[in-house]
Design a protein that fits this description.
By secondary structure, the protein is an alpha/beta fold. It has 2 domains: 123 residues, Response regulator (Rossmann fold, 3-Layer(aba) Sandwich); 285 residues, 3-Layer(aba) Sandwich (Rossmann fold). 38% of the residues lie in helices and 18% in strands. The protein has 17 helices and 15 strands. The strands form 3 sheets. It has an 8-stranded mixed β-sheet with strand order 8-9-7-10-6-11-12-13, with helices on both faces. Helix 13 links the parallel strand 11 and strand 12. Helix 6 crosses helix 17, helix 11 packs parallel to helix 12 and helix 13 crosses helix 14. The N and C termini lie far apart (55 Å).
Length: 437
Amino acid sequence: MNQALWGNPSNGATLDTITVLLAGGIPRLQAWYNLLAADARFRVSMQASEAADLANKLITNPDVLLLDASIFNGPQPLIDALTRYHGSAYVLLPLEAGQDTATTIGSLASVNGVYKSDINLGTMLGEIYAAATAKRGARANGGAETIWTPGAGGGGGQPSGLRLIAVWNQAGGVGKTTVSTNLAYEAARRGLPTLLIGLGAPDDMPLVLGLKPEPNITNWRANPTADGLKTALQKVDTLDVLAGFPDVLSEAQAMNTPLDDPTSVPKLVLTAAYMGYAVIILDAPPTAMASSAISAANTLVLVGRPSLEGVMRSVEAYRTVVERLAGEHHIPQSGVYVVLNRMGGRMGVDEWHKAASALLGRAFPPIIAQIPDDGRVGEAQDNRRMPLNVVDDFSRGLKPLADALFSANNGSRPAVAETQKPKRDKSFEVFGVKVKL
């Protein structure tokens, strides 16, 4: 039997539920699962009964790994697997394992506990939950005072508490590149070491930024190291930029790359984190490439258009992250920020949010920022200028998002951005759901 999969993905878990990967012999997995299934704080996302199966599933980076190490043929494969994992691991070693092995395993950054006889899981759930939420909070923390811990002498910082932001929607043409480029520029302008990564194919981000199409992400993929990344970067003032794919063929190759491959997007983000960046922003395309960006992120900026089709696309994008990709990323519910771009004469923010909530069947995340439709934004980009610097209305529209993500005092956020009251009663249908305003 290659794998054992239990768990109920529709058990009411939210993005703030702690995800758990269980690995070991089937009887032990069943016992562990029974304990965790009774605790609403946890969701068993996957289980594995063989080392090879575990290696494939660790790329989803669950919050917690409960591991019976007897499925490994010796300590070195176990050490290799735990070194690639970045959550909270609790490891049950075989009885014959020596003290040196236990000490080595316990010294790994991902390991919170090493045990020899058994793991008394029933008495440890509170401790496991606290450790996992603390580590998740560190990843998702976006306060400017805490998202970056510089190294000694101003060198590279520690890759914890970073803002790893995927800017995305399933629809094209909503303004993701405009938002991601200006948001990254604003983070750099606020003094945060920032890297902007394009993932389009062909990527038009260097065009609007006045950069060259090369070097780009394919140069880094040819040399997936910190030195390779440094040579692939371009600059816009203090902002570092890695241009995206030059064509769809190079993008297709990247799409087929496993998430634990050295040339994958998560490995790119990890490399950049260890280089000392405080903010890493991924301009995610409306293609399958976006799943790699989401798996590497702890924050999602969802850019939508103020229209009925914008409602539908945004709700489906949100469902993709919350439901279809649940357990495959570290984006908590509080880490989803909705932006309405090109606000004008179509839907107001109140009616858009109400329609999105009706279509979703529950409260949609609040709209943190609304950016007006202003032709000067496109004119600025055509002239290779940052709209943030030359279009005041655009700058004001983007500011609430930047403040929420990058300000030290960002613990509170409005339920909905400053709203536009409807001037008259209005009702319409969204796929059979009647919405009255």
